[in-house]
Amino acid sequence: MKIFKIFGLFLAVAVAQANDLEWVNLYKEGGIKAVELKLKQLIQSSQPQEKPLTQENLFKGRDVRFGYYEDLRYLFIASKDAPTLKLYVLNDKNQWEEKLNADSLVGSKSGHKEKEGDLATPIGVYTLNARLKNLDQYYGPLAFSTNYPNLFDKLQKRTGYGIWIHGMPLNGNREERNTRGCIAIENNLLSFVDSIIDYRDSLLITYENAIQEVNEADLRILLNDLQAWKEAWKNNDVETYLGFYSPNFVRFDGTKYNKFAETKRIIFAKKESKQITFSKINISPYPNDENKNLFRISFFEDYKAPSYKFHGNKELYVELKDSKMRILVER
Q1: For 191, phi and psi rounded to 5 degrees?
Q2: How many CA atoms are closer than 13 Å to the CA of 144, on its beta-carbon side?
Q3: What torsion do the CA atoms of 314, 130, 182, 70 make, to the nearest 10 degrees?
Q4: Which H or E element spans position 328?
Q5: What SS3 state is found at 194?
Q6: What φ, ψ does residue 41 adopt, rounded to 5°?
Q7: Partner of 246 at 20 to 30 A CA spacing, among 27, 44, 83, 269?
Q8: pLDDT value, residue 30
């Protein structure tokens, strides 16, 4: 009985948008299923439609000097050549506000950190993965640990660990003007940073020399190619999909391009229907000493297919070359 009441209510709404004769004729020609279909169409058409996001929507009013971020609040940027550590906080107008510009101590070796004990501060992009307290007094009141070596570092065979942002000795006795690879700032400044950030919503970008701002046109290409890569994946268009990978590609587990491509061709040949959505997209410039236009792209992926489902974080390291995204590393 309840079903008939609901149906009657929908029918009354529909009749307000069409005359009685139209519904009578529809019922005579197609029966109750035709009426149900018409009702469904009317209900859907009456609901507000979400406007598709365009690049103009995405970039309008957004500060993209340091990359494109949908899911980040705090950004540390370090320079090794004239050692400084800056902290930017994203305000409610999507603008990066500088909250810290401090002299710092870094490792004595220039360039990438290659191995444990080489006294180099790594250059690259790193997440902060812990806030450390109750340390040896040498490190100051607290420290933030980074995820060095990141995935890109590991696949470059770079080793070492324990790269932190920390303070100065609490006893005031520090004669060294360099660290063993960490970034050190004055204790009062570190305490100030601790009072305003959430390390879980932070990122560190370390440069060898001066900070280089990002070209907005590059970010537009990357977002467009990320979408095209996803659509090729969704539509089982294997050649277009593989066209976004560098011949030097290495998967997180060490699989190289040829084996990866062979596996993907087998999977795509099944022509499974897929639903793939990306959200919380972050694109950071990736400093390097090879003068390449590298970026780290992270996002949340929701993947559904009959044979496999995945809901989790994805990470790409890519090169923008000849105005096209080339994936170097994927997890």
Answers
A1: -65, -35
A2: 24
A3: 40
A4: strand 324-330
A5: helix
A6: -65, -40
A7: 269
A8: 66
Chain segment 107-128, per-residue pLDDT in tens: 999 999 999 999 999 999 999 9
Q: Give 270-299 as a DSSP string.
A: T----EEEEEEEEEEE---SS---EEEEEE
Q: Which two tokens stand for residue 37?
A: 């279909």
pLDDT digit string, tens, across residues 158-183: 999 999 999 999 998 888 899 999 99
216-330 maps to which CATH number?
3.10.450.50
Bridge partner list, 309: 304
The residues pairing with 77 across neighbouring beta strands, listed in sequence order, are 86, 205
For tokens 């080339």, what's the residue?
326
Q: What is the pairing mode between strands 164-166 and 84-90?
A: unpaired
Choose among 252, 253, 248, 243: nearest CA to 292: 248
User: Would you place residue 57 in the very low, low, confident or very high pLDDT band (cuts 50, 70, 90)?
Assistant: confident
**Nearest by Cα to 159 from 96, 115, 193:** 115
CATH number of 71-207: 2.40.440.10
- Residue that has been written with the tokens 């996001």 in this structure: 53
